Amino acid sequence: MKTLKAVKTLGKLEEMTALDPVVDIVRRAVRKVLRPSTAKDLLHGVPMGHPAHPFLVQLPTGAFACAVLLDAVPGTERAARVLIATGLAAVVPAVATGLTDWSDLHPQQQRVGLVHAGANVLATGCFAMSLAARLSAREGGKTWALAGLAALGGGGFLGGHLSFRLASGANHVEAVPHQVPAGWNHLALLEEIPEKEAQRRTLGLVPLMVWREGATVRVISDECSHLSGPLHEGTVSGSGLDACVRCPWHASEFSLATGEVLRGPATSPAALFQVRVSDGRVEVCLPGAG
Ligand code: FES
């Protein structure tokens, strides 16, 4: 089956550098307001273990779509007004989480994300006009709502492209357990691993980040779960159970002892390997691998 023309056009949108000046202005504004913090992590969805934005767009999308449906049912004008007002209120957290995620993406993703946001702003404006018309008993409330739904559909299509084709919110280490051999695997001799110097090694197809402190060796997947940044090129701070690595791309932080996310934008943990050292041989095992 041939790829739809619309999808091919999206490929061009990804490379449309003419959007970059606007992307730059918006990204700088968002980053100025949202410094790395617990509040920013909440907006990314770090405590939930996956992005908060897809979950929060359900309410405005559903409310707006239902309002348009009710417009075809006599006697439901008041319910349609309530739904549109609810949708408009619910846009606020959806926009906040979306902008937060968007500010830490690759340029191609940000270009598509900018147009996705533009379509949704247009949709929100249409529904606001629709509500204003309905409240003042003017004509055009239903037409504005229909236009808003069309814009919302376009925005949703772009959001799907961003999430699935461009994997902007995906867990980039999901495949790791399927790519490493099951059981214990030889990694290196202990003496081959330098102390307190992050190293990249591979196991099967999977790059690993290896960190050694004395006889203790920590091993996690080297690709950042956010967008595959090389963690071994990041900065390690702390020691022992408090040791963590900061991704060089967007500053996500992962515990080297547990693999958990200590700071977003990543929301999924690193794949954490069990390590045993015997007779100077370092072996690793990923529970659930194979
Ligand atoms: S790739 Fe974005 S934080 Fe690591």
TrEMBL record:
Membrane-traversing stretches: 82-100, 112-132, 144-164
Source superkingdom: Bacteria
Record's keyword terms, sorted: 2Fe-2S, Iron, Iron-sulfur, Membrane, Metal-binding, Transmembrane, Transmembrane helix
Residues covered by the Rieske domain: 185-284
Gene3D superfamilies: Rieske [2Fe-2S] iron-sulphur domain (2.102.10.10)
InterPro entries membership: DUF2231_TM, Rieske_2Fe-2S, Rieske_2Fe-2S_sf
Name of the protein: Rieske domain-containing protein
Organism: Paeniglutamicibacter antarcticus
